[in-house]
Amino acid sequence: WFVVTCAFLPVFTLLWSPVFLTNVFTAATLGLTVSYAIPVLCRLVLARHSFVPGPFSLGRWTHLCGWSVVAWTAVAAIIFSVPLSVPIDGANFNYAAGGLGLVILGSFAGWRLSARHWFQGPSPSISSSDAVRVKEFGWK
Q: What is the enclosing helix (H) or strand (E) of 73?
């Protein structure tokens, strides 16, 4: 019930300011989109030579699909960051991009200051026997 209550709390801000609720939804959409694009961009730029593809790979389409994800995320970030009405003032400004920027900066700072010293990476989600089974079906 706590989670349900917290999910509905932003709706009550409509009584105070409809722009605030729009900023909350915009920030959530931007955050979700960017959270998928950051690992893709890191794989394309930082790990382009060292990344070992798993059994589920796009093969030669990896870079095309990856860069299209990054391009779409950039376009979506611009679209969702546009103010909602003109003239722009403090009451109708879209603060979602600034909030997302603060979260990204805070996450990066947390990584640099602490997490990089103890985080060893995610545990594998597929075992070697599953990978053998995938190859038996002829999938690449």
A: helix 62-81
